[in-house]
Amino acid sequence: MKMIRTLLLINALVSVSWAHGSEQHATCPSDTGRTDSALSTVLRPVFGPEYYVEQGVKYFLTMQSDVPLRVVPRYSRRVIRWEWPPWLLLTGYTRKNLYATDAVLKLTPTSYDAMDCRYFDQQPFCRCHVVFNYSGQQCPIYEEFTFNDQGEITFIEAWSDYESLLPMGPGADSTWSAADYWAQNGAKRLSTKLPGLGSKHGRIKPNAGFMKRAAELDNDIAELLTRLQRPAYFWLQRLWNTYNEVKNGCEPPKQISIPITRVRANSNSQIGKGMG
Length: 276
Hints:
- The chain has 8 helices and 6 strands, in the order H-H-E-E-H-E-E-E-E-H-H-H-H-H.
- The protein has helices spanning 2-15, 49-61, 95-105, 178-181, 209-217, 219-229, 231-241, 243-247, and strands spanning 75-83, 89-93, 110-119, 126-134, 137-147, 153-160.
- A hairpin with a 5-residue loop joins strand 5 (137-147) and strand 6.
- Helix 1 packs antiparallel against helix 3 (95-105) and helix 5 crosses helix 6.
């Protein structure tokens, strides 16, 4: 079943255009003085808690087989999805691409054995622990959603929900508090260090000087910018290089961690902790 899901994703990613379209936005009071390089952490909630939780839940419903296609979250035009190992890093870019890939995933019988999405007043505003069910195969995932002032999802970041693969530390004496469980204490995430997610519309500018300078100082940002140059190519390359890990990605990790296997910028171009 995992192989079928992978092949469907290949078909969707290769066939969907990555072009950008035009879009209009509302103006929010907090736009004043916002710089293009601002981090997401400067943003404050514009909508109520229920709104952000609803958008996170809708994201997962787009992949549930018995949910109509019209049920979708509000994506930014240049929304990015980043899934850490054992997954394929950059797995979605642009609203059009995510709508297409999410729809294709419905062809694989998908439901949820557990879903716990919660609101936080600091970015990422919505965070979820979920357990996918692919025709009986459970797959625990922890996922975070960053928003702009217009209430659109700008960045989606996901990890397998096993302690050794999560962005949180082990906690005091290897025991997690609620704050640890929801990644409130020094979590290592890409979304909060990416320049541009705190800008007027929460869109990054891959070719901007400030972005290139950030990439020189941070390997994760450099990795993202490289993959944004040729998303489908690098996605397929990583799938080829890590196919066995991806195929078994829902299973508890082995002792040896899976490296990111970074690409060069000049390349040819738990259920581990329980729920709630």
